[in-house]
Amino acid sequence: MKYQRAELEKVYLELEKKQRPLLALFGAFIGLIVAFTVTAVMERYFILNVIVAMLIAPAIVGYFARFIGGLYQTFPRLIVALFSGVTYASIFILGKQPTAALIISPVVMAIVFFTSMRKLSLIEEFAAIEHAAEPFQSANSNRNKHFTSLVIVLSLPVVGYFILNHYGNRCLTSIENGEHHVIVEYCFSPDISSLEEVMLKKDYELTEHWFGRYELFTSEASLMKFLASEGDAKYEEYWWVILHFIYQNSSTDLQEERAIWQQKLLDKEYAPAIKMHLEEIIRPSLITDKTKKEAIEYIKILTRNRDEDADAFSLTVKHKITTEELQNLLQYQMGNLDSLTLPQLEILVRSFDSGEFYTLASELREENEIEEYYTDSIFIETSQKDLINVLEVMAKKYKHTEAYFRLANIYMETDITKAQEYLIIAAQQKHPAAAFILGLGRYCINDRKAGLEWLNKATAYGSKRADEYKSRILGGEERAETCSVLKNLK
After folding, report:
1. Contact (CB, 8 A) for 268 and 233
2. Which of 395, 426, 443 is the last residue of a domain?
3. How many domains are contained in the chain?
4. Is the domain of 483 the same as that of 406?
5. 3-state SS class at 375
6. Is residue 174 part of a domain?
7. Are strands 356-357 and 321-322 parallel, antiparallel or unpaired?
8. What CATH code is carried by the domain that includes residue 448?
9. What is the DSSP secondary structure assignment for residue 246, as one 8-state letter?
10. Is 51 found in the same domain as 120?
11. Are both 196 and 123 inside the same structural domain?
């Protein structure tokens, strides 16, 4: 299809009239607002958020610029792409992510450049080609419009530099001038007004600070540490908070520096440091007498300074049980076994079995002062002699069936007469295993009748093995084979 030059000229003039570079910049600005809103909505979904920020958001900007500005030429599209890239880079730099700015901004510019071009009709393409080959005389130059757009875009980094320079130096300046009324707001987070608020935040909520990482101090962090090292009390508090709440890693160097500054602030009776220390040392269920005395001394400081948390700490420490108390209780109970209740004796048996002694909290504290619970345990040296003493009291004083059975097992190796005595008592008290062993034993010493009687009783008491061996005996199994298992039974 062939078009007349006059016809192409008319189409080209209309095409130029629709292309408005300044409006395209405005469209890109509106697109950026929409794009960042969409990105913010997707913030909680990390992968989706990255895809939106890098691909979808720039496409939105490009479409807005194309729709409002009617762009089709390369130069105005480059200006819009540059505007978008600079805006993205500025946001990442303000967010203290310069690496992300270097990586993402070129991608954004490329996507905006390609998506901001409007699709030309066939005659519009011919008109543009014709003008490029031989410019139409009636066509006005777009240089002024392009130049104005370029000046606007190039001025953005300059304006951004001054804004960033002012904003970025607010924290450092406030530290240098000792402007404590704004240091927390400028250096930690704009929505925080006190160090106490910083301490209440989670680590993921403290991302707007100006102190970098522990491995890579910023100028603000270096100055803060220097002033703290000079002995300025307020900066010591700032630096302590930075170490404990801003820098989040487990490096040995950080832990050591935290400990040094923690002790400095403890010596100066800084309440938050005292509270953190108290929470650390009284966190275990069991503490030592030394730790308890240390905690009491720090609580006295809080009380003297009328701290609102002093009473709560005092009550917690009051109820804390120490390892020395458990050791003393064990020693007392072992010396007074006859005075112990059955539950106390049972706890002693379990402690000797496991090698760890524990007890009910009520053994060491009044029940009306503390909720009933078992204490944590302390390691103890196990002794069969002590275990026998406890079991003897349980058996003789409380007629405890399991105690008789366990004593029978213990004496099997040393005193068969006593073992048999305890085994009979346990069997008479309907202990299924005791009745089974006694029945099999009677059978194996040629007392078939008594053996089967006890096996019947054992079956009635719930022993499945007794029923099995009774069937083997009645089935005519050789006595030697049936009795071979007896030496391994306990």
Report:
1. yes
2. 395
3. 5
4. yes
5. coil
6. no
7. unpaired
8. 1.25.40.10
9. I
10. yes
11. no
pLDDT digits (tens, 9 = 90+) for 397-417: 999 999 999 999 999 888 989
Per-residue pLDDT band at 191 (split at 50, 70, 90): confident
The parent domain of residue 291 ranges over 277-319
Are residues 13 and 159 located together in one domain of the fold?
Answer: yes
What DSSP assignment string belongs to 448-480? HHHHHHHHHHHHHHT-HHHHHHHHHHHTT--HH
One-character DSSP codes across 420-443: HHHHHHHHHTT-HHHHHHHHHHHH
Per-residue pLDDT reduced to its tens digit, 434-460: 999 998 888 888 888 898 999 999 999
Integer CA distances (angstroms), 255 to 220, 244, 283, 394, 454, in order: 21, 9, 19, 51, 67
pTM of the model: 0.64
Q: Which residues fall within 8 angstroms of residue 275, CB to CB, at 6 or more apart?
A: 302, 307, 309, 313
CB of 30 closer than 8 Å to CB of 153: no
- Of 82, 90, 88, nearest to 162 by C-alpha is 90
Q: 286 φ, ψ to 5°?
A: -115, 135
Q: Taking the mean position of all CA atoms in its chain, how far away is CA 479?
A: 64
Query: Tokens for 461?
Result: 């008491």
Asked whether residue 388 falls in the same domain as residue 409, the answer is no
CB 361 within 8 A of CB 372: yes
Q: Which two tokens stand for residue 286?
A: 């069991």
Residues 77 and 13 in one domain: yes
Residue 236 sits at φ, ψ, to 5 deg, of: -65, -40
Total number of residues shown for the chain: 490
Shared-domain flag, residues 98 and 16: yes
> Beta-strand (E) ranges in 344-431?
356-357, 378-379
The string of pLDDT tens digits covering residues 91-108 is 776 665 667 777 888 888
Using CA atoms, how far apart are residues 431 and 403, in angstroms rounded to an integer?
11
Structure tokens at 86: 């600079």
CA pair distance 129, 186, nearest whole angstrom: 56
Residue among 280, 205, 213, 273 at smallest CA distance from 237? 273
